[in-house]
Write a structure and sequence with these properties.
This protein is an alpha+beta fold. The protein is built from eleven helices and 19 strands.
Length: 397
């Protein structure tokens, strides 16, 4: 029998005591998270293949940092990041249609709809209507878009909103980058995306996806007797963390799921040969390996498996409100049968995500009663314990 306290024994520095609830419900704690985390650290804000052509752009709202950003691929094929604010009267340059707005400009420019100021993809102010009516103190060269630090890893786009970041993206990712290096994220490009706003703290949402203890209860309908509730190969890498989630071997899928799995292998519930996983993932070649569950601090979960990867992101809007975004990627189907099987797998996954998100608002509401002051975590909830320690370290730095 496994040691019931193996993760505590491996990481005694995290302790075993209860976790305070106040950071999940206190507005003043959230304000400190905004200043010390979301305005300071590298944030994953997209994929290079979301803006594949010169002149493509994406605007992303970052409520926790009081801004929205323009990611634009220039004519030189370079992706740059700028704040979405006009230097004239402070209007947004690109009119936003939601949390994410996509567009394309053949000329690789963006134009403020208020008074028609035009900016290039490099942020330079290209044109000002009636420029001669401005005064001598006005200098076009000094009034481009405000730049943001941007960098890239494995096709993911990161920004850092600090005037001078504390570290480079490579330093921030540390061993996490090497752990996933070489996984063919871009090759698995067929995508399903879901998002919604939830009335809960961003950490409540994070925690719900950062353990497998709940699968026998919450996912009894979507994935009955499919996954083990314990974690394997837990690794803590600076502010980031990862582990393996495993299958319950011998579980029998429903007849329809069995057929779908045999056609496309797009579901997490099947055993598959490993051909694309980096050597650091499932290093002991467990037969029951299902997927790698990782947390890229502060708010991004990246999961990989053979032929599948998916993400969850939790964007704070207020101390008790969060935008959740879930994305699921597989190989593009080549036949109608593969498309049906892939759609079936995604429907199962969507149902599981609905089951996960259905707990979060109840958790927040109950926590806000302050009838309980702490949470009690078991050994396989170590990712939550590590998250709590990291957030506490940043907020109190």
């Amino acid at each position: 029998m496994n040691d019931p306290h193996r993760w505590l024994n491996e990481h005694p520095e995290l302790g075993s005591g209860p976790i305070p609830i106040e950071p999940y419900i206190a507005p003043d704690w959230y304000e400190r998270e905004r200043e010390k985390i979301f305005k300071k650290v590298w944030l994953c804000v997209g994929r290079m293949d979301e803006i594949p052509k010169k002149g493509d752009y994406k605007v992303k709202r970052l409520a926790a940092a009081d801004t929205s950003i323009i990611l634009m691929r220039g004519k030189d094929d370079v992706v740059r990041a700028h704040h979405n604010i006009c230097a004239h009267r402070g209007n947004t340059v690109v009119t936003e249609t939601g949390p994410e707005t996509f567009g394309r400009s053949k000329a690789a420019i963006v134009t403020c709809r208020f008074h028609g100021w035009v900016y290039g993809a490099d942020g330079a102010l290209k044109h000002v209507p009636s420029e001669e009516r401005f005064y001598q103190c006005f200098d076009k060269k000094q009034n481009g878009l405000s730049p943001i630090h941007v960098d890239f890893w494995e096709g993911f786009i990161f920004v850092n909103l600090a005037e001078t970041p504390d570290n480079s993206l490579a330093e921030f990712l540390g061993d996490y980058a090497g752990h996933f290096a070489g996984f063919p994220f871009a090759e698995l490009s067929y995508q399903f995306t879901y998002h919604t706003e939830l009335e809960c703290n961003w950490k409540v949402a994070h925690d719900a996806f950062a353990e497998a203890y709940h699968v026998d209860t919450i996912h009894a309908g979507s994935f009955p007797n499919t996954f083990s509730t314990g974690l394997q190969n837990v690794k803590l890498m600076g502010p980031h963390r990862t582990c393996a989630v495993c299958l319950t071997l011998g579980a029998t899928p429903t007849p329809v799921a069995g057929i779908a799995n045999s056609i496309a292998g797009a579901s997490l519930v099947t055993q598959r040969a490993e051909t694309m996983l980096p050597p650091s993932i499932n290093p002991d070649k467990r037969d029951d390996f299902a997927f790698e569950l990782s947390v890229l601090f502060p708010n991004t979960l990246i999961h990989v498996s053979e032929g599948i990867w998916f993400t969850h992101q939790f964007w704070p809007i207020a101390h008790n409100r969060t935008l959740w975004e879930g994305r699921y990627y597989v190989r593009p189907p080549k036949t109608n049968a593969e498309r049906w099987a892939t759609e079936h797998a995604m429907t199962l996954q969507r149902n599981a995500w609905l089951e996960d998100t259905a707990t979060m608002e109840d958790t927040q509401r109950a926590m806000q009663s302050r009838a309980k002051k702490v949470q009690n975590l078991q050994d396989d909830e170590i990712l939550i314990r590590h998250s709590t320690a990291v957030v506490d370290e940043y907020v109190n730095a």
